[in-house]
Amino acid sequence: MPITTHLSDGYVNALGLMSGTSLDGVDAALIRTDGTAIAAHGPSLTLPYTAELRLRLRNLLDNAPDLTPDNAELRAVEQALTLVHAQAVQRLRQMAPDMAVDVVGFHGQTILHRPGRTWQIGDAAYLSAQTDLPVVHDFRTADVAAGGEGAPLVPLYHAALLHNRPGPVAVLNIGGVANLTLVTGDGRIIACDTGPGNALLDDWACQHTGTPCDTDGQLARRGKADQAIVERLLAHPFFRKPAPKSLDRLSFHDALAQIAALDAADGAATLTAFTAQTIARTPLPEQPREWFICGGGRHNPALMAALAQALPGTIYPAEQLGWSGDALEAECFGFLAVRSLAGLPLSLPTTTGVPFPQTGGRLTCMDITPWGRRLWPCSHTDSPPPPF
Ligand SMILES: Nc1ncnc2c1ncn2[C@@H]1O[C@H](COP(=O)(O)OP(=O)(O)OP(=O)(O)O)[C@@H](O)[C@H]1O
Ligand SMILES: CC(=O)N[C@H]1[C@@H]2OC[C@@H](O2)[C@@H](O)[C@@H]1O[C@H](C)C(=O)O
């Protein structure tokens, strides 16, 4: 196994794959890392899903509580989703022919996330077979089994990127759901999901304009936020709860019913204000002086303006520090794949509520035998299975 040799040398080239709650496509990114430091950032890309796959994923997500893992549609969507991931791997390898990939970190697609249960779909064995690469996957189960939230998992990557930048400083991801990592003045890493990011706004825009999001905040900029509704929504006990805490994409979906009487522009402005204020009101032990924003929400000027107004400290797009704000979560799963192989923690009591620092992830890899290529699930301690 090449992984062992490369790890003993220190750094490996890890290709991370993330399919986020926005269901818009798969992000892929390459980094060179030993699971602690990041030696180099390679290229990244996003492969959008077809409208058909998006719809099928959304149907799964909407019906996930009633699905069993052997459901025929679930299995079919899982294969289709995995194939798009394999294509993303292939394209990224073509973009970086000099950066031979040692391992893939495959998050999959979350279709359900609630206390005690987290469910990501994606077929790691199929991906490994399609790409001829070892694949680390199933990143959240061990944390949940140990009593953690199972999310967010990106904080240790955020902290590695911040690399001794004096705190208090925050990294804020605004995807379908929003999450933040605070590194305090004395270097503690505190993290949580803060509330909806773009998910409600995407659904609202889709209902009213047929577009998948409020592109460039055009709707919200024409409207006026209804602060009374925002306050009603903010009264939910989740927003008073200190970190760590996490959410499902559909957690605040009933907010759409509460704004149903508003016109398209005022509804978008209200949801934009709601997202910004949930972040600003997240109970934190220290107020960050600087906020570095990643995820698709930073492309929305109406949301960025609302954040600038609501947050203490200064906000910057992630690019201010030379990071790629659209690739960061994918990079994270490359980083976590390497941490998993090295047996390092993926989560901490202050990031997911797990009782002790917890490693996680499972390795699925190829084995070449004299009888031909075959797959076997393995871990670092497993010995290869006997031949056929
Ligand atoms: N130009 C834009 N104007 C407005 N919104 C945008 C723009 N570009 C991207 N977005 C928003 O960003 C979202 C995608 O963000 P991102 O890819 O970070 O989410 P994700 O990774 O799927 O979610 P999560 O981080 O919750 O898993 C889109 O659904 C959209 O709401
Ligand atoms: C269960 C799940 O997939 N959660 C996602 C989601 O999207 C953003 C936020 O909610 C975060 O908690 C998490 O993703 C990132 C990558 C994380 O685990 O840090």
Measured as a percent range, the helix fraction is 25-40%
In angstroms, what is the radius of gyration? 20 Å
Report low-confidence residues grouped into runs of 5 or more.
1-8, 375-388
Q: What CATH architecture of the largest domain would you give? A: 2-Layer Sandwich
Distance between the termini: 20 Å
Q: Tell me the name of the CATH homologous superfamily of the largest domain.
A: ATPase, nucleotide binding domain
Small ligands present? adenosine-5'-triphosphate, the ligand CC(=O)N[C@H]1[C@@H]2OC[C@@H](O2)[C@@H](O)[C@@H]1O[C@H](C)C(=O)O
Structural class: alpha/beta
What top-tier CATH class of the largest domain fits best?
Alpha Beta
H/E topology pattern: HEEEHHEEHEHHEEEHHHHHEHEHHEE
Strand content: 15-25%
Q: Output the number of helix runs.
A: 14
Q: What name does CATH use for the topology of the largest domain? A: Nucleotidyltransferase, domain 5
Average residue-wise pLDDT: 92
The geometry reads as: globular
What is the tally of beta strands?
13
Quick one: biggest sheet? 8 strands, mixed
Short description:
With 388 residues, the protein is of the alpha/beta class. The protein is built from 14 helices and 13 strands. The strands form two sheets. Strands 1, 2, 3, 4, 5, 6, 12 and 13 form an eight-stranded mixed β-sheet that branches. A five-stranded mixed β-sheet has the order 9-8-7-10-11, sandwiched between helices.
What does this protein structure show overall?
Its EC number is 2.7.1.170. The protein has 388 residues and is α/β, with parallel strands linked by helices. It has two domains: 203 residues, 2-Layer Sandwich (Nucleotidyltransferase, domain 5); 162 residues, 2-Layer Sandwich (Nucleotidyltransferase, domain 5), CATH 3.30.420. Helices cover 36% and strands 24% of the residues. Strands 1, 2, 3, 4, 5, 6, 12 and 13 form an eight-stranded mixed sheet that branches. Strand 10, helix 12 and strand 11 form a beta-alpha-beta unit. Helix 7 packs antiparallel against helix 11. The radius of gyration is 20 Å and the shape is globular. It starts with a helix and ends in a 10-residue tail after the last strand. The N terminus and C terminus are likely disordered. The structure holds adenosine-5'-triphosphate and the ligand CC(=O)N[C@H]1[C@@H]2OC[C@@H](O2)[C@@H](O)[C@@H]1O[C@H](C)C(=O)O. Adenosine-5'-triphosphate binds next to loops.
